[in-house]
Amino acid sequence: MTAPLLSVRDLSKSFPIQAGLFGRSKLAVHAVDRVSFDLRAGQTLGVVGESGCGKSTTGRCILRLIEPTGGSVTFDGKDVRALDGAGQQALRRDMQIIFQDPFASLNPRMTIGAIIAEAMTIHGLGRDAADRRVRVAALLDRVGLKPEHMRRYPHEFSGGQRQRVGIARALAVEPKLIICDEPVSALDVSVQAQVVNLLKDLQDDLGLAYMFIAHDLSVVENVSDRIAVMYLGRVVEIADASALYAGPQHPYTEALLSAIPVPEPGRHKVRRKLSGELPNPINPPTGCHFHSRCPIRKLPLCATERPEMKPCGQGHMVACHMRG
Amino acid sequence: MAGPSHQTTLTVADEPRAPTSWQRFRKHRMAVVGTVVLGLLVALVLLGPLIWNVPIDKIDFRARLAMPSAAHPLGTDDLGQDLLARLLYGGRVSLAVGFAAMLVAVVIGTLVGAVAGMSRGPLDAFLMWLTDLFLALPTLPLLLLIIYLFRDALKGLVGPEVGVFVLIIAVVGGLRWMPVARLVRAQFLTIREREFVEAARALGASRLRQVVLHILPNALGPVIVAGTISVAEAIIAESTLSFLGLGFPPDTPTWGRILFDAKDFLSIAPHWALFPGLAIFLTVLSINFIGDGLRDALDPRKVR
Amino acid sequence: MTTTPLLEIRDLHTGFHTDEGLVRSVRGVSLTVARGETLALVGESGCGKSVTAHSVLKLIPMPPGQITSGQILWQGRDLVPLSIREMNRIRAREIAIVFQEPMTALNPVYSVGEQIAEVVRQHMGLGRRAAVDRAVEMLDMVGIPDARRRVGDYPHQFSGGMRQRVMIAMALACEPKLLIADEPTTALDVTIQAQILDMLQDMKERLGTAILLITHDMGVVAETAERAVVMYAGRVVEEGTVDRLFSAPAHPYTRGLIRSIPRLDGGQGRHKRLDTIAGSIPSQYANPPGCRFAPRCPLAQADCLAAQPPMTSPSADHHFACFHSVPEAIAP
To answer: Which InterPro entries match (chain A) (predicted)?
Structure first.
């Protein structure tokens, strides 16, 4: 086996919280809590979880848009956290990001052409402005827009079209990895499918690796080779997509799967319903974070000790005292 | 139907292109009117004294407090001096003070606000403390103190007129940057967290590039409005100083100065106060309209 | 059906006057809601589903909004000409609404109990003590644990899902006959969404309230509604029982919508392309004579661009507006 393109080990990020007027309080939110996974070139890792599970923070820590507080990130053999300014600048060419909200992720004062060309200017790609224009036109064509759109402003486009512009901007530096942070959550169903198909085509043609972040398991199924499920800052299960859907091991994964409404009336499946709400991340439950909502917990251990990741099949890992 | 390779080509192209900034500005009718009025005022104070060459200090007691007439189109003051000539001459000073002080306020305010908004932690806290301090200072006593301390030194350095001018725009502008700084900082704090700025960071854009290309243009709208208001404030502040005898010498007929001189004669010679008042009013109003127009012109989302 | 339906909308047109002209958001919508049933109003953003529902309660800002023509019959009585005061007697008491964002729909400075009690006192004439008791009863009914103690809590002390429960409790407190639920679960996490949908179903069975459910999610439709109305660009394109709509959808847009839902099939989706509907939603300013969906439609022919297709009815409980399509099951 070749070495993975991206290797994340025990990545952690905690945000201190200030409490009180002069609070130098020691409280911290562990937004990302010892997360580990690998991603191979040309493949897609789906990262799934509900709000506050740390999936977006994980993505931003890998890009160092947020500085992690612990763990290691290895990209293409390089230790990302040890990179200096020049190294980090080079890394920015290899890793890109696509955002969730197509209305907030494009500068409203810049034309589409300027937005896409900026990446090339920063990294000195293209001989001159004319050459960059040619490249922008090619990129627009690649993502299903027209070259003449480059003189327009973001507000003239629909959500799906803006998301295509965001994709073109990420592609402009010819990256190897794109972190897709809920790229279709804000779009209508029929447009979601268009954007997902575009991302898949680009992956096939350009050999891109994706880290595809989503809040439910229905969209990622269609893009992912492997899937990691997160809950309150921790990965609770990671497996090949087919294994995860065929035999989910963690009770939270089961609940996420059964919470997806099925577009087949009459086939009311038996829901594995979760009681209770998502706990406050400032003060998560002890032991296994999930034990307060878990339908299968039995061991006293669940409330006292953090379950570590254990193998439970070919490339399948689960963090549960009851399984594995 | 389009073929499969073009199934995603889209409807935007059928609609007309977005207007340029200039086109957007031109559609803002009041802003165009404001530009014309301000242009006229500037032309008048620059060229007027060459055409209407009545001396501004020619005293004529027979014509004191005269109503507008052919000899004195805007009437005269209590010494019989021609008001039109005085307004035209004094306007140069008033407009120059207004614009220069606005520039000082906006530049200092934007710099302080931008630095505070971009730096988290102690520097931000210090700059905001400084801003609050300046806001809390009683302006007038401070003005008096600064002028008493530095007027003579500056006069000696660059000559009496330029000295007073520099001093006045420095103090008037230097005490009006605080609202701009707070506005800019607040804008920066929200805009720097927006995803398009994060996207620029992910592309490796330097801090300067993020500020100049992404944050500042999106923060400009409120700053322009604040700037136009400070022009008006500066013109008024100069007249306060003149009134207290701390501004330009009493024989420099700035608009504010004329207004204050006229206030004791309101009931018998209303025209004396009316015309400088009108001049200040027109200037402020047209600048405000231009500000509105500029704000919209710089925002491509405005279709109107 | 011989009895008067609870709500009947006849050829409703609602528009908004803007600087660039009249935006015709709703272009001739007709639908009925029977007592105690759940009707889903489905469509993508900008299709006019929310504007239709808000028109019923006259919650659209007027001006710039305007109901230009049509009737909204509430138990046979037209609501369109009613004054605001007359509408206020209908709001909350007979027709209630819950919104997408439970964060912004509650007033942060009053406790949830005070807010529910206020509605109850105004519309049911209960005294202060009785109104608070009613609030506790409602909070308990929508599944808020320890309701008696939590009735004095403020909105910020509840999580998103709990706030939506509070909103539903408030809406149902006066026992309205119709609840308009405007994307009630869109802002919530998936596991919470499932809880809220189950709770709504439960409340409907206990109180006999009819529900007009506005949603963009065909999965939610399949799981909660009995009948559905599919809207596209301001018009109804198909209407029918949910069973029929999913087993034999007729309109090409409905078929496209159902097909583009990502389906779980045991992790095998990785190598399949998703079905899509080509193109994007038409401009709201355009007023073409023909079918609004024609530019994106795989079946479109010349006549589609010339005239609006009328509603055809293959059976009493199924109607659609298309010249060329027939109801047919979607091949997997």
So the answer is: AAA+_ATPase, ABC_transp_ATP-bind, ABC_transporter-like_ATP-bd, ABC_transporter-like_CS, Oligopep_ABC_C, P-loop_NTPase
Compute the mean pLDDT over every residue in chain A, rounded to the nearest whole number: 88
Residue whose entry in the numeric block shows the structure tokens 């079946």: C299
- Section C134-158 average pLDDT: 87
Distance, CA of B240 to CA of B262 (rounded, Å) = 14
User: DSSP string spanning B10-66?
Assistant: -GGGGSPPPPPHHHHHHH-HHHHHHHHHHHHHHHHHHHHHHHS---TT---GGGTTP
B303 neighbourhood in chain C, CB within 8 Å = 19-20
The number of distinct structural domains making up chain B is 1
Report whether B296 contacts B28 (CB < 8 A): yes
B11 falls within a domain = no
Q: How many CA atoms lie within 13 A of B220 on its CB side?
A: 19
Return mean pLDDT, chain C.
86
What are the chain C neighbours of B3 within 8 Å (beta carbons)? none
Task: Say which CATH class A6-224 falls into.
Answer: alpha beta
Q: How far is CA B246 from CA A208, A304, B160, B167, B254, in A?
A: 71, 76, 13, 10, 13
Which residues of chain C lie closer than 8 angstroms to B304, CB-CB?
Answer: 19
Task: Give the pLDDT confidence score for residue A99 in this predicted structure.
Answer: 93
Partners of residue A158 in chain B, C-beta under 8 Å: 10
Per residue in C67-106, pLDDT (tens digit) is 889 999 999 889 888 888 888 888 888 898 888 877 777 8
Partner A, chain C 7-46, Cβ-Cβ below 8 Å: 44-45
Give the start-to-end residue ranges of the domains of chain C: 7-109+154-262+275-312
Residues comprising chain C, all counted: 332
Please name which of C53, C48, C45, C5 lies closest in space to residue C179, comparing C-alpha atoms. C53
Examine residue B69 and state whether it is found in any structural domain, yes or no: no
Q: How many contacts does B have with C, using Cβ atoms within 8 A?
A: 19
The alpha-carbon gap from B31 to the nearest alpha carbon of chain C, in Å, equals 18
Instruction: Indicate yes or no: CB of C194 within 8 angstroms of CB of A259.
Output: yes
| Residue A159: its H or E element | helix A159-171
Range scoring the smallest mean pLDDT among A206-210, B299-303, C149-153: B299-303
First to last CA, chain B: 34
Q: What fold is seen in the domain C7-109+154-262+275-312?
A: Rossmann fold (3.40.50)
pLDDT at residue C232 in the model: 92
Domain that holds residue B162: 18-51+81-297
pLDDT tens digits, one per residue of C287-309: 788 888 888 888 888 888 888 88
Cβ–Cβ gap C279/B7 under 8 Å: yes
* Prediction ipTM score: 0.83
pLDDT tens for A26-39 read 678 889 999 999 99
Backbone angles phi, psi at B206, to 5 degrees: -70, 165
Q: Which of C222, C174, C175, C178 is nearest to C9 (CA)?
A: C178
Q: Which residue has the tokens 């029918």?
A: C240
CATH code where residue B228 lies = 1.10.3720.10
Which residues of B, range 173-202, sit inside 8 Å of A by Cβ?
A: 194-196, 198-202
Closest CA to C321 of C233, C224, C217: C233
CB contact under 8 A, B218 and A109: yes
Q: What percent of chain C has pLDDT over 90?
A: 22
Distances (CA, A) of C190 to A256, A260, A274, C197, C220: 7, 7, 11, 11, 11
How does strand A234-240 pair with strand A226-231?
A: antiparallel
Q: Kindly list the distances between the CA atom of residue B149 and the CA atoms of A187, B142, B155, in Å, as whole numbers in the listed order.
A: 64, 10, 12
- In this structure, what token pair is assigned to residue B107? 């530049």
Residue A90 has phi, psi (to 5 degrees) of -65, -40
Which chain C positions have a beta carbon within 8 Å of B10's beta carbon? Answer: 279-280
Chain C contact probe: residue of B8, B9, B10, B11 with most C CBs at under 10 A: B11
